[in-house]
Amino acid sequence: MLQINNLHARIEEQNILKGVDLTVSAGEVHAIMGPNGSGKSTLASVLAGREEFEVTDGNVLYQGQDLLEMEPDERALEGVFLAFQYPVELPGVSMNNFLRQALNQQREYRGEEPLSAGAFLKRMKACAALVDLDPQLMSRAVNDGFSGGEKKRNEIFQLAMLEPRLAIMDETDSGLDIDALRTVADGVNALRRNDRSFVVITHYQRLLDYIIPDTVHVMVDGRIVRSGGKELALDLEKKGYDWIREETVAV
Amino acid sequence: MSNSDKTTSLEALFVDAFEAYAGNPPPANAPMPVNGLAPLNAMQGFRRQAIERFRELGIPSRKNEAWKYTHIPEALARGFAVSTGGSIPDPGAAETAQCALAGLDAHIVVLVNGRFASEHSLIGNLPEGVAISGLGTAASTHPDILRNHFGHYASWEEESFTALNTAFASDGLFVYVPKGKIIEKPIHVINLQKTNERLFLQPRHLLVFEENTQAKVIDTSCALTGDATFTNAVTETFVGERAMVEMYLVQDPGNDNAVVSTTHVYQETASTFTATTVTLTGAVVRNNLNVLPNAPHCETHLYGLFLPGGATQVDNRTLVDHAQPDCVSNELYKGVLNGRASGVFNGKVFVRQDAQRINAFQENKTIVLTNEATMNAKPELEIYADDVKCSHGATTGQLDPEALFYLRSRGMTKQQAQGMLLHAFAGDILNRISIEPLRRMLDERVTRLFGE
Questions:
Q1: Beta strands B115-116; B107-112: pairing state
Q2: Which domain covers residue B21, as residue numbers?
């Protein structure tokens, strides 16, 4: 599904990613943990195609294709989805219009007919229910005046609507209280399929109590320094990132 | 030739045309509208004073701070014949029909080159006492109304273009709504232009809404064929006590034609006035919108949307002069500049010394799509009262790259994402338009303009 080799990226003159290697197979959930500034969100941004980052070395293969050569919208059409850490408010752009455009764009790309108004509405209701998102929000502008929790749920709601192959969740847990966290995690779990992969970026282990990852990676200073099973997350929670940092230096 | 010589020669063009016009008054049996102007003709002295004043004030050049960014002498330098009457070209019924708004049930007034064309107008049934006609006609049908209102609000002493218009004023839209009457359907004025020579047009509109009346007026332009025009329009609007008036000015004259539109609005106690000015095309478009809420408890809303591309210059200058207490004014102008277009917003709000408890808000937001387009925004508040709530602001910038990325990350192309955001930006103004066929037409124009 996804193969990242020796990825280096920088923003302006600052090198952030310094050789990331990561392989995600279809159906797997990979968690990436790491302290602030370790490059987790940069990795998500580079994968989604944010233009302010410059890739200076390495490559990314997505379903056998060179991901870095694709425009952000092409990546989306090919099934890459980024759940934003800070979802953007779009005053004047209605949720309804936004989702219909996005969904039909993707359907057209796959050679499918646009959804009928009725089918679209039905799908919207079902997906909103999945993350307990207030259906009233559908008549509002995208994220405009949404609470922090509503914005995060809205990201997972869109994930459910757009049915990506590769979902990258950038700190979806931050700003969610424990009830919302459970709801969102339940939603994500319901969306797990053996042909859909998740990269879950998080600062804390808590989310991983609910979304059980196949593999946990620890990112420090622009590199993945350790990978392991879900118990690695628990170790990190107990011992803190300094433990890894020290070990890395020692190695 | 120096710059000032050139300017002098521009003015001479008008003064000479005036002398020819005034020196040859139309014969008593001349066709409408010129011979219908008894009260205006009775003000020949007034006309002469106006042309004298125009000569003194001159065509505003860029040295004039208020006209710094709008190149009027350059636009006039192409040479225009000053229209002083003559026969009205027949635009043809089919062509006229194209200029109507789809689905709009309205009282339709057609002006051809600034002159009332009764055979193309479809005014329909009106409540008793209400008059919708050409100003030339009104000069004989409503002499008292003209005497009490014409020339009372638009100051020819102070404004060069108003002086010029006043010197030549002969026809335009006339609306009179007597006390207590409601006009349920909008009044739609279609400004048709058809000419085979470069023509300088000076329509003059007078709208009088007496106490406790309600009306909506749409003013659209429709350039059919022929050569370029320069329109110098002046509108005077009286909004009586508790009257509610909405005016929509939709400017789409085509990129060869220039417009200076000056509107003066006078509001009486507890009246509500809303103006929406939408500018789509034009060579040079300058709008002077002046509102004087001259009594307490008035409400004034001024909305603007300008979407020029090419080399179009759009210059919106507004003035709300709060002379009396307890009034509200709210102003929002939004623009999207493409190509080499230039935009100006100069909004002034005056709160005079005794005008306490005024709420006045003013905002201008502009998105500049190219490096060649430029925007100059100058919001101004002048407050002499102490118990007021006022704010103003202006922002000019590009589309938010983060918002664009968000949409693209959901599968929309750059073009679609941009179209969606621009549409939403313009929607802020469009969604305030209370006449659905007009809103829909503009919404479709915006969609075509930006794609989606």
A1: antiparallel
A2: 3-295
Chain B partners within 8 Å of A85 (Cβ): none
Answer whether residue B344 is part of any domain. Answer: no
A29 DSSP 8-state letter: E
Determine contact, residues B294/B268, Cβ cutoff 8 Å.
Answer: yes
Q: Name the percent of chain B in helix, strand, coil, to the closest 5.
A: 25, 35, 35
Chain A nearest CA to B402, separation (Å): 7
Among B263, B295, B327, the domain-final residue is B295
Q: Do B16 and B159 share a domain, yes or no?
A: yes
Give yes or no for a contact between B164 and B14, defined as CB atoms under 8 angstroms apart: yes
Chain A positions in Cβ-Cβ contact with residue B334 (cut-off 8 Å): none
Q: Choose among A43, A45, A37: nearest CA to A21.
A: A43
Same domain, B250 and B105: yes
Shared domain for B281 and B430, answered yes or no, is no
Say how far apart CA B285 and CA B342 lie, in whole Å.
Answer: 10
At A73-122, the pLDDT tens digits run: 999 999 999 999 999 999 999 999 999 999 999 999 999 999 999 999 99
With a cut of 70, say whether residue A35 has pLDDT above it.
Answer: yes
Number of structural domains, chain B? 2
Task: Count Cβ atoms below 10 Å from residue B252 Cβ, excluding itself.
Answer: 18
**Closest by alpha carbon to B194, among B138, B293, B117?**
B117
With residue A17 as reference, give the H or E element that holds it: strand A14-24
The overall average pLDDT reported for chain A is: 93
- State the count of interchain CB pairs (< 8 A) between A and B: 72
**Same domain for B90 and B219?**
yes
Residue B361 inside a domain? The answer is: no
Strand A65-66: give its sheet, edge to edge.
A14-24, A2-11, A53-62, A65-66
Domains and CATH numbers, chain A: 2-250 (3.40.50.300)
The verdict on a CB contact (< 8 Å) between B411 and A91 is no
CB B128 within 8 A of CB B8: no
- B75 pLDDT more than 80: yes
CA A30/CA A199 separation, integer angstroms:
5
Residue B45, pLDDT above cutoff 80: no
Cβ–Cβ under 8 Å, residues B179 and B240: yes
Sole residue written with tokens 């998080």? A202
**pLDDT for the residue B269:** 98
* B92 inside domain: yes
Q: How far is A237 from chain B (nearest CA, A)?
A: 32
Interface membership of A189 toward B (CB under 8 Å): no
Q: Rounded to an integer, what distance in angstroms lies between the CA atom of residue B141 and that of residue A31? A: 83
ipTM above 0.85, yes or no: yes
pLDDT score at B348: 95
Boundary (domain end) residue, out of B295, B326, B344: B295
Are B88 and B202 found together in one domain? yes
Using CB atoms within 10 A of its CB, is residue B135 exposed (0-12), middle (13-18) or buried (19+)? buried
Q: Is residue B433 part of a domain?
A: yes
